[in-house]
């Protein structure tokens, strides 16, 4: 059935005739499905670099089979066959596989549009005189079919990605829990492909003053996002009653200033940090938590503090591991016996530089110069109240062995 409603009097076919021609075009393309599938694979590999890195069996078998299925499905739809949800099952399975293999979503969806272009070229090549008016119908069918497949594939891929991310977060959390508990974690990390360094920088961040489940989770997410660049990916984190624990590779300590800034932008808190080998993570975690508490209790501004930053307060808090660390604060003076002798004299003579100079038989300016050098070497000025306390305590601990 035709009508004459186009300029120039050329007949325009009705929808029934368009569908008949579309079915005929699809039938003429059917014998070419295998060739079209091979051409589709070639176009994919040429247009999408990621696909050249896929295993040969995936390229030559799995992707080719999916291409044949997709081409036949469209030709069947063009021939009038109704497509239902079951016909999408293979595409959904492939979407899940690509998500698990790490193929990007944009790369995956690009392949469907490349396929749509290929099928359109094949259909146009089969058009005979008088059949051109069926092309708009075929174009609508193809746009609708492609959009339907792409939407379903995107949903399946994103659902698979969400499941993968949930599983990985659970794995990272379990690995962190094992390390913080002093349990073996290497086998678990290997199972999930998580690289474990030999040593860690262990951070402890306090929970909000009035913690809620939502606030705690938001804190953990912000911290994870801020510190990804220091862990080469998602850092190992665990939230418990002592706060948020973060385990970073020890190399992150080489970027401590940068780490402080990143953490400050995400969550301006007063955090503690300690360095340890993997086997000593539990002790480092307790030390970081104590450092964080001390830094907050002594009114220090938000930031990341290590033992050296709160050494005297740490010792006064009764920490069992404080003695050796505090005594070691004067280790930089071991190669400068004149500085250590001057420091002892200065403290023994009640911070009187002239009396110390007389005891040492040197000029008072020499005492001043030596104390300035001592301050630079140990990071604490013995002429200040805190520096005096630290140096006096450290000297006592060294004398006691």
TrEMBL record:
Residues 35-171 form the RsbT co-antagonist protein RsbRD N-terminal domain. Pfam families: HTH_30 (PF13556), RsbRD_N (PF14361). InterPro entries: CdaR-like_regulators, PucR_C-HTH_dom, PucR_C-HTH_sf, RsbRD_N_dom. Signal peptide: none annotated. Residues 339-396 form the PucR C-terminal helix-turn-helix domain. PANTHER family: CARBOHYDRATE DIACID REGULATOR (PTHR33744), DNA-BINDING TRANSCRIPTIONAL ACTIVATOR ADER (PTHR33744:SF1). This is Helix-turn-helix domain-containing protein. It comes from Actinomadura sediminis.
């Amino acid at each position: 059935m035709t009508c004459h409603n186009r300029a120039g009097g050329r007949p325009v076919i009705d929808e029934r005739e368009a569908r008949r021609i579309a079915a005929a075009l699809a039938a003429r393309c059917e014998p070419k499905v295998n060739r079209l599938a091979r051409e589709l694979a070639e176009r994919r590999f040429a247009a999408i670099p990621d696909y050249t890195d896929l295993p040969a069996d995936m390229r030559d078998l799995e992707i080719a089979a999916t291409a044949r299925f997709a081409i036949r499905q469209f030709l069947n739809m063009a021939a009038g066959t109704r497509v239902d949800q079951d016909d999408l099952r293979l595409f959904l399975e492939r979407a899940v596989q690509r998500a698990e293999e790490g193929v990007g979503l944009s790369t995956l969806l690009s392949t469907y549009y490349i396929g749509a272009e290929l099928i359109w070229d094949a259909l146009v090549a089969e058009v005979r005189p008088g059949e051109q008016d069926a092309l708009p119908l075929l174009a609508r069918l193809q746009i609708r079919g492609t959009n339907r497949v792409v939407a379903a594939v995107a949903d399946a891929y994103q659902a698979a990605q969400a499941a993968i991310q949930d599983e990985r977060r659970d794995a990272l959390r379990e690995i962190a829990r094992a390390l913080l508990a002093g349990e073996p974690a290497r086998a678990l990390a290997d199972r999930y492909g998580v690289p474990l360094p030999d040593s860690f920088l262990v951070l402890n961040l306090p929970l909000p003053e009035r913690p809620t489940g939502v606030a705690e989770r938001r804190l953990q997410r912000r911290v994870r996002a801020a510190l990804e660049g220091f862990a080469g990916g998602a850092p190992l984190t665990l939230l418990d009653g002592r706060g948020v624990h973060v385990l970073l590779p020890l190399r992150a300590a080489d970027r401590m200033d940068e780490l402080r800034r990143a953490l400050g932008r995400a969550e301006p808190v007063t955090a503690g940090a300690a360095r340890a080998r993997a086997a000593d993570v539990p002790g480092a975690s307790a030390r970081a938590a104590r450092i964080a508490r001390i830094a907050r209790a002594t009114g220090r501004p938000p930031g990341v503090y290590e033992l050296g930053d709160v050494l005297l307060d740490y010792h006064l808090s009764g920490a069992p591991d404080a003695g050796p660390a505090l005594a070691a604060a004067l280790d930089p003076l071991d190669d400068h016996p004149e500085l250590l002798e001057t420091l002892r004299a200065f403290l023994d003579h009640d911070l009187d530089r002239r009396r110390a100079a007389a005891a040492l038989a040197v000029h008072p300016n020499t005492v001043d110069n030596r104390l300035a050098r001592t301050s630079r070497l140990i990071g604490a000025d013995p002429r200040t109240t805190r520096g005096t306390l630290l140096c006096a305590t450290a000297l006592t601990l060294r004398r006691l062995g």
